Structures are given as C-alpha cells and as structure tokens.
Amino acid sequence: MTQSSHHHSHSHSHDTHVLGGAFFLIAGFMVIELIAGIMTNALVLIADAGHMFLDATALGLSWWAARVSAKGYDHKLSYGYHRFQVLAAFINGLTLTALVIWIAIEALTRLAHPEPMLPLPALAVAAVGFIVNLIAFRWLHGTSNNANIRSAMLHVLGDLLGSAAAMLAAIAVYFFGWLYADPVLTLLIVVILARGAYRVLKESTHILLEGVPQNVDLGEIKQTLCRAIPAVVEVHHVHAWALTAEKPLLTLHALVPEQTQVQEVVADIKSLLATEFGIDHSTIQVETGPCPDTH
User: Fold this and answer.
1) Taking a C-beta distance cutoff of 8 angstroms, is the pair 143, 149 a contact?
2) Strand 248-255 relative to strand 281-287: parallel, antiparallel, unpaired?
3) What is the CATH class of 3-208?
4) pLDDT over 70 for what percent of the chain?
5) Closest CA to 286 of 273, 227, 260
6) pLDDT grade, residue 145 (50/70/90)?
7) CATH 1.20.1510.10 location in the chain
8) Where are the alpha helices (DSSP H) in 142-235?
9) CB-CB contact of 218 with 240 (8 Å)
10) Do residues 46 and 191 make contact, with C-beta atoms less than 8 angstroms apart?
C-alpha cells in the first residue's frame, strides 16, 4: 500500500468514526429533547427536535454511505451502492415535509390560542442541545471536509440556531411572560426545516431522474473537447448523470479522422474531463464515419 492510499484509507476511517459518533450524539439528544418538549409543553423544543431529526438523518446517511461505499460494486449493482444514499434522502425528505406541515399547524394554532410552558426546564434542555450541537460541529470540523461532511456540518450549524431560538423563547416566557415567543420562534425553525426538506427533495429527485449534475455544462464540454484536442472533429450524444452529487458520470461520441490513434484520443478526452470538469468516470465512443446511433 502506498503512502497516499494509506492516508486516504486512514482519512476515510476517521471520517466514518466521526460521522458515527456525531450521529449517535445528535440522535440520542433528539429523543431527550422531544420528551422534554412534551413534558414542558414547549412547542419550540418539539420543533427543534424535528430539526435534530433532519440532522441525525443527514449524519446517519453520510455515516452509512461512508461504510457502504467500501463495498464497491458487484454483479447485482455494477455501479456500486451509492444510490441507496439518494433513495434514503428522498424518503427522508418526504417524511420531513409531513413533519414541517404538522409543526406549522401546531404553531399557528398556538398563535391563535397561546398555551403556558415551563420556561426553566425548556431553557435547560435547549442549552444542553446547543452544547451537544457545538460538540458535533467541532468533531466534523476536524475531518476531511468532503461534500458529505460539509453538508452534515451545515445541518448541525442550522440546529445550533434552532437551539438558540428555543433558549430565547424560554427566556422571553420566564422574564416577560410573552407566550407568543414559543409559536413565533417555532415558525422560524419551520422555515429552516422547510428549506432543508426542499433542498433534500430537489437534489435527490434530480439525481434519481438522472438529471445532468449541477456543475456540468454539456455545451461547454463539447466546445472544450473540440477546441483542446485537435483530433476531435465533433462531439455528440453527450449524456451526463450522477450516482450521488459527488459522483458524476458521462458518455459521449467523438468523431475523428481516419488513421487517428484512437487510444490516444480516448486518453486525452478522459484526462480533460477529469481535470477540467471533475468527471472521473466516462465512457467514450470514437467514430471515424457516420454515427451508427443516428436515425
């Protein structure tokens, strides 16, 4: 094993352990906060527990994906197991949407008819939640910071804001008796949750429908290949999709003159796709005449 591969293996293992630890930390406190929210009648805590559900799911998916990705591919799943992460994210997005609707209805109901809450227990639980999220954020900050890690960090950072909102609501009720603080700040968390659910559903749906990855411009790829590689006369039938947001795939047909060294052209195209567009997996069909797939 080379030093580079050893470092990559060690980094991957460290990321997996950190994601697992952060998942259990967030998920465990989510249950505590939900119970505390019900017992203290603090809707803002229940809403923040819902936000922690989003965070725990995101961390769980990232942790699970890091573990499963080591399996590679087999005769049943020739592209590997990456799409399970996307499917799970889509299902989670649907569940989260239902949760957002329920919390919003409860908050609007309490705006019309405010209910008392126990501010000091709610404040204590929210403060502990803030510390828990701060610990998880610091753990994730010490990892390799790939796309999955960055996404998990953003979820936890959002939950820090949710815990802060819960603390403010408890303080407002305790010192000023303003019962509207609970539903008003709950609606703020609803907005945060709704944005997260929308992004999860939008990204996962786009990937499941095999849409073109966000940072891939098919027109630019065609122009760049024809301009940068002299042997490439024309590029057509370009298709791009993704296994996950971080794993784009591409197929294309390239027209070249006869007597061209096909192997060299394919190598040049693959190298350019990897260095300029971040596409490491591509399938190239080289043609010296009319395209057999054109009808």
Assistant:
1) yes
2) parallel
3) mainly alpha
4) 91
5) 260
6) low
7) 3-208
8) 147-176, 181-208, 218-228
9) yes
10) no
State the DSSP code for 33.
Answer: H
Look over the chain and give the mean of its residue pLDDT values, rounded to a whole number.
Answer: 84
Answer with the residue of higher pLDDT: 247 or 82. 247
5: pLDDT strictly greater than 70? no
Secondary structure letter of residue 205 according to DSSP: H
Give the pLDDT of residue 221: 96
For CATH 3.30.70.1350, list the domain ranges present in the chain.
Answer: 218-287
In angstroms and rounded to an integer, the radius of gyration of the C-alpha atoms of the chain is 25
Query: Would you state the pLDDT for residue 237?
Result: 95
Apex CA 281: angle with CA 146 and CA 258, to 5°? 150
Q: Tell me: pLDDT of 146 over 70.
A: no
Backbone phi, then psi, for 41, in 5-degree steps?
60, 35
**Look-up of token digits 């725990």:** 56
Query: Quick one: DSSP state of residue 248?
Result: E
Share above pLDDT 90 across residues of the chain, in percent, rounded to a whole number: 29
- CA-CA distance, 291 to 253, in Å (whole number)? 8
CA contacts within 13 A on the Cβ side of 111: 11
Give the three-state DSSP class for 197.
helix
Instruction: Give me the phi and psi of 242, to 5 degrees please.
Output: -145, 145
> How confident is the model at residue 7, as a pLDDT?
44
CB proximity list for 42: less than 8 A, separation 6 or greater: 36, 117, 118, 122, 166, 169, 170, 182
Query: Which fold would CATH assign to domain 218-287?
Result: Alpha-Beta Plaits (3.30.70)
Calpha distance 136→116 (Å, rounded): 32
Q: Whole-angstrom Cα distance, residue 42 to residue 122?
A: 7
